[in-house]
Inverse folding.
């Protein structure tokens, strides 16, 4: 069980490092004439229009990412429960523990999906 906990911790650390900003700061470049912008962070973004994102859009994006991570964790728990079930070798205690792990993972996945639907519905209702 300690190996599984270490593997889940390693996956969580990898996901956390992927979500961290790189901190790279670059100077704005002057866009050529005829571009949508006069200056942009990179030359590629000279013809990309700036979008007007409000607090609702940003909060919805953050909440969706959090719920997606929770869904991924729930799927990982289900897979680990399945592995434990296969490795239980018919031991009733290990089999029950593995079944409970799968059940809790399914419950977590359902909760994550419902949370996604509810949050998007509420934010869409409040945003209009």
């Amino acid at each position: 069980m300690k190996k599984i906990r270490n593997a889940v911790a390693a996956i969580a650390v990898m996901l956390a490092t992927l979500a961290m900003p790189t901190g790279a700061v670059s100077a704005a470049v002057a866009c050529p004439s005829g571009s949508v912008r006069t200056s942009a962070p990179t030359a590629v973004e000279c013809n990309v229009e700036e979008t007007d994102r409000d607090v609702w859009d940003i909060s919805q994006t953050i909440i969706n990412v959090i719920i997606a991570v929770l869904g991924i964790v729930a799927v990982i728990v289900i897979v680990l429960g399945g592995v434990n079930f296969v490795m239980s070798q018919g031991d009733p205690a290990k089999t029950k523990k593995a079944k409970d792990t799968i059940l809790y993972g399914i419950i977590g996945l359902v909760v994550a999906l419902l949370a996604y639907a509810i949050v998007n519905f509420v934010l869409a209702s409040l945003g209009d």
User: Anything to note?
Assistant: The mean pLDDT is 78.
